[in-house]
């Protein structure tokens, strides 16, 4: 019985090596998988950076008032006062039965605690001009 020599392959180098030495190729693939797994677990991913946008919410209760009267008699005067603050980016208000909610968004350069104090001052200055029966605002 004679041993026939292994035929000489004439294809691609990677394909020839994979056929001749499958264990070597398997070890290379496992090495690539392990390195990829380690890289995946150690890379820091920060898709949502830590930012603190200065914003203030104000809720003004007025028991028994309709949404229309809340919008006209409470929300509008307070909004007009808050528009005069420096650094205000956006003001939103929502009025429902007995309650008005205001959201004030400031520019990112504004100090949050200073913005809160400015909003309290403006709302407090507006309270005497609001209808009687309006409760103290919640911040």
Topology, element by element:
Layout: H1 13-20, H2 22-42, E1 55-61, H3 67-82, E2 88-96, E3 99-106, H4 112-126
Helix pairs in contact: 1-2, 3-4
Features:
single chain; 139 residues; alpha+beta; Alpha-Beta Plaits; 2 domains; three-stranded antiparallel beta sheet; 4 helices; 3 strands; 17% strand; rod-shaped
Describe the structure.
There is one protein chain. This protein is an alpha+beta fold. The chain contains four helices and three strands; from the N terminus they run ααβαββα. The chain has two domains: 13-42; 55-129, 2-Layer Sandwich (Alpha-Beta Plaits). It has helices at residues 13-20, 22-42, 67-82, 112-126, and strands at residues 55-61, 88-96, 99-106. Strands 1-3-2 form a three-stranded antiparallel sheet. The protein is rod-shaped and about 115 Å long.
Summarize the structure.
This protein has helices spanning 13-20, 22-42, 67-82, 112-126; strands spanning 55-61, 88-96, 99-106. It is an alpha+beta fold.
Q: What's the tally of helices?
A: 4
- Strand portion, in percent? 15-25%
Which class best fits the helix and strand makeup? alpha+beta
CATH 4th-level superfamily of the largest domain: Multidrug efflux transporter AcrB pore domain
Cα shape: rod-shaped
Order of helices and strands: HHEHEEH
Compute the separation of the termini in Å. Answer: 96 Å
Report the sheet with the most strands, covering strand number, pairing sense and barrel closure: 3 strands, antiparallel
Stretches where pLDDT is under 50 for at least 5 consecutive residues are none
Number of beta-strand segments: 3
User: What is the CATH topology descriptor of the largest domain?
Assistant: Alpha-Beta Plaits
Considering DSSP H and I runs of 4 or more, what fraction of the residues is helical?
A: 40-55%
Q: Within the largest sheet, what's the order of strands? A: 1-3-2
CATH A-level architecture of the largest domain = 2-Layer Sandwich
């Amino acid at each position: 019985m004679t041993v026939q020599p292994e035929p000489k392959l004439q294809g691609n180098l990677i394909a020839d090596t994979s056929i001749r030495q499958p264990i070597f190729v398997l070890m290379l693939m496992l090495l690539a998988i392990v390195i990829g797994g380690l890289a995946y677990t150690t890379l820091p991913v920060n898709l949502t950076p830590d930012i603190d946008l200065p914003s203030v919410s104000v809720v003004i209760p007025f028991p028994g008032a309709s949404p229309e009267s809340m919008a006209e008699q409470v929300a509008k005067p307070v909004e007009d006062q808050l528009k005069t603050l420096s650094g205000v980016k956006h003001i939103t208000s929502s009025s429902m039965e007995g309650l008005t909610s205001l959201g004030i968004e400031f520019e990112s350069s504004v100090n949050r605690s200073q913005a809160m104090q400015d909003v309290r001052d403006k709302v407090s200055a507006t309270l005497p001009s609001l209808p009687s029966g309006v409760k103290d605002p919640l911040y």
